[in-house]
Design a protein that fits this description.
Length: 463
Amino acid sequence: MGGGTRWDTIVIGAGPAGMSAALELARLGLSALVIDSAPLPGGQYFKQSTLRAKPPSEEGRSLIAAFARAELGRLMDTQVWGITPEPDGFEVAVYRKSGGERRLWARTLIIATGAYDRPVPFPGWDLPGVMMAGGALTMIKHQGVLPGRRVLLCGTGPLQWVLARHLLEGGAQVVGIVDAAPFPWKALRRMTALMGQGERMREGLGAWAAILRAGVPVHWGKIILRAEGADGVERAVIGRPDGTSTRSFAVDTVCLGYGFQPFNHLARMIGCEHRYVAPLGGWVPLRDDWCETTLPGVFVAGDAAGIQGKDVALLEGRLAGWGAARRLGVDVADDQVKALGAQLRRQRVMAQFLSYVFPYPFDSVPFPVEDDTILCRCEEVRVGDVRRIVREGASTLRMVRMLTRAGMGLCQGRTCADLVCHLLAQETGTPVADIAGPRISPPLFPIPLHGVIGEEAHVRGEN
Ligand SMILES: Cc1cc2nc3c(=O)[nH]c(=O)nc-3n(C[C@H](O)[C@H](O)[C@H](O)COP(=O)(O)OP(=O)(O)OC[C@H]3O[C@@H](n4cnc5c(N)ncnc54)[C@H](O)[C@@H]3O)c2cc1C
């Protein structure tokens, strides 16, 4: 343990979950430090663009203003790359280009690190012009840049509609929306889930109306089978998952919107127990009613604990703030907790509704991949390499990783670990939930050596 400030709580992530957690901690008089790798607070939903392409909503602006006023420590432009549990707290390893402390210390941790796009492989997915829907949204909303001119959207769920609307408003041609789910008749059976969801409904229906006005065709029950082109995407072929009913489109961009995966790698790194819950986007931490994980003093809130959107993230952040306070010996009124729990249950219904109507399709059907399709882009491992190793007896992610190097590259498996698990599940006939996830080790991101041992030690050749 080094010198420096001892914080009551370090909150990792200044998105909706992290900011609301920090505000509760400050209100209860605890010392909290919030760390985020972005230059400004806001997270994905309330992202503040340094280019001012689109300011956050009124709700976002007032949350960010309250966060700026609160008595808190803030460390932006700073990546957390490792955590070490200690007998009386946690050491947090951070990297900042501008230098400064490399090790911080807190008695409790709130991990609110959000989510990231979920990739799906198919022949040609590594061509320039194939990109993730979340990345495309970020380009348009926050950088004011269109990802392409003739765009096909492939994936499932309403985030595709939101993206289509932004593309249309930006002047792109949306040649179609390909949704793996059948036409959502079954939504009718669960309409009650939409009660009290005015804002989300307005957002979804507004996007849907823009799609209808522009005459964008929607292809239900189809997926992208391949993308073709010489130096970038020129054509995309769609069809049923079994490869029938194909159609081809001339495009320069394909956006993949198969949802997000929780980014809870720091919690997994320190041994918090996780399990695979498909409707929540993959591996999620086991938590109690206060968002506390199986490791006492470590809380996970928001999308990092399962993909449930901004409203759940805001409420879980508050709950995790109270949970951390309680662990530090500060009382929180029971009636407040009960009221928040009731709000949270209502908001979670919406996320359950969406995963019921638009489930991740590849839990039930195989990826449409051929042996020479790239699976791990960092190490250029192909689907056939993994299939061969599995047929020769490899039955775990760890064995596949050791024998093929899949997941050992720059992204440390963030992109391909879930894909390899699905492939393992398909090849061995095992449910994906029963395949053990990857072991996560520090550093979470590639960082320069001087970020670990310090500039002077690096120059002197010490370690
Ligand atoms: C790319 C993307 C685009 C999205 N677009 C939309 C949209 O248009 N509409 C919509 O309804 N929903 C969208 N969502 C979903 C929505 O943004 C989330 O549901 C919501 O923001 C969840 O809030 P959160 O606080 O849990 O996480 P986030 O808002 O994701 O905040 C997490 C924060 O943690 C920080 N962080 C992560 N890891 C580290 C680390 N190791 N060190 C330091 N900081 C770290 C990140 O920089 C980020 O600021 C999007 C999600 C993503 C990933």
